[in-house]
Amino acid sequence: MHNYYKAEIINDKLASIQTQSAIIANEISKYSDISNANVNSFSGVLQQYSSVNEARILLVNPDYMIVLDTFSVEKNKTLLSENTVKAFDSQKSISEYDKDRGCIEVVTPVFGSEKSIMGVIVIDLSTEGIIKFSVEVSQKTYVIKIALITFLIFLAGVSSKMITKAFRKTFDDVDLIAMGHYDKRIEGNGYSELEHFAESFNEIMDKMHNLDESRQEFVSNVSHELKTPITSMKVLADSLNNQADAPIEIYKEFMQDIVDEIDRESIIIDDLLSLVKMDKSVAKLNITSTNINESVELILKRLKPIAQKKNIELVFESFRPVVAEIDEVKFSLAISNLVENAIKYNQIDGWVHVSLNADHQYFYIKVEDNGIGIPEENQDKVFERFYRVDKARSRETGGTGLGLAIVRNSILMHHGAIKLHSEENVGTTFTVRIPLNYVE
Ligand code: ADP
């Protein structure tokens, strides 16, 4: 690298001296000759140039006699150097870098009028200073490079330490959570990638927390619901036990009550089992191409006797024949629950209208009634497990509060959607939309 600098600088210097030498030769050639008088008139300028550039300038006449020496040592002496002779002979400028002497020499002919050669200018420049300068430059560059590399290594060290520290902190937080501190969350630490990771991780933890809470709530609800009939049975059995000579009629009546409670317990367990089945993976769906018209008609036929008890008119209106890919058992369970609710939460002489329609993508089932309706504030919650608007009424009608949760799960498993529209004391409409073709 050092040699590269040196060569570059020497080449530059050589080129600049060649140019300046040509300019000087041109100036001198304006004089008629290089007699003492003329030389005296331009020697001042050359002297100045010589001292500024630390160069020695000689002017040699065709007799090889030095007529001007800016170092004033060899004036009037003869100069028969190789380059001078060459320049006079060839009448061309000669340039040379003499490595051994450590100098640059440029010899330029000065032409007078009629193109005759008046003399030659010899410019000698020591390259010692130039080399010294190039060594200094290369040394300084080297020092700067070392300093820069050291600084970069230091910077890399510091930043990697900072990043490692941030990672350590994040991993410590994760470890703490894994050890069971589920309420703990990863704190942000200013690194966008880690922040992003922390946000996603915290989101997952929040979801798991909510899931865990809803699971706990479900277990507590299940226990409560299952316990109620058992408590009633115990009360009934205890009161029979406490009556020494209870008449057979009382026994029969109490036993019937106990059987009713067992039936209720069994309904709750059946509903719970349906719900658990619905919660399982989608792979459990047994999809077949089904005639929906027939399927709905069968559901209504089975529910007709319950409707007749309250003299409720049950009407099915189909706008077109529909065949769709569904799990018939789970689909029927959902539609039965909706129609059963429309009958249960209705009035004597009421009506329930079920309609079926389809477009090229979905089929739609609407279950409409003119029953008691659902107050607006309860409408969001009716799909929750065990949620009942009027507990006492629901119990009376044999409701478990699981029906709509089963309906929703079944529809979602079919990639469908359910909408509710209801007005208190006017009626309720549930609209179900299910894709005609099931895509996993
Ligand atoms: P349940 O076993 O109590 O019927 P569901 O989950 O089927 O439970 O329904 C939840 C609650 O929504 C019911 O308790 C009832 O208060 C209300 N509900 C459902 N369907 C209707 C309807 N068609 N008309 C009025 N209220 C309804």
> What name does CATH use for the topology of the largest domain?
Heat Shock Protein 90
**Which regions are unreliable across 5 or more consecutive residues at pLDDT < 50?**
none
Instruction: Output the structural class.
Output: alpha+beta
Fraction of helical residues: 40-55%
Instruction: Please report the first level of CATH classification, the CATH class of the largest domain.
Output: Alpha Beta
Please give the CATH architecture of the largest domain: 2-Layer Sandwich
Distance between the termini: 69 Å
The strand order across the widest sheet is 2-1-5-4-3
Q: What is the CATH superfamily of the largest domain?
A: Histidine kinase-like ATPase, C-terminal domain
Mean pLDDT: 88
Count of structural domains? 3
Number of helices: 10
Output the radius of gyration. 54 Å
> In sequence order, what are the helices and strands, one letter per element?
HHEEHEEEHHHEHEEHEEHHEE
Shape: rod-shaped
Bound molecules: adenosine-5'-diphosphate
Count the beta strands: 12
- Major β-sheet annotation: 5 strands, antiparallel
Transmembrane segments: 142-159
GO biological process, one term: cellular response to phosphate starvation
Main location: membrane
InterPro entries: BphY/WalK/GraS-like, HATPase_C_sf, HATPase_dom, His_kinase_dom, HisK_dim/P_dom, HisK_dim/P_sf, Sig_transdc_His_kin-like_C
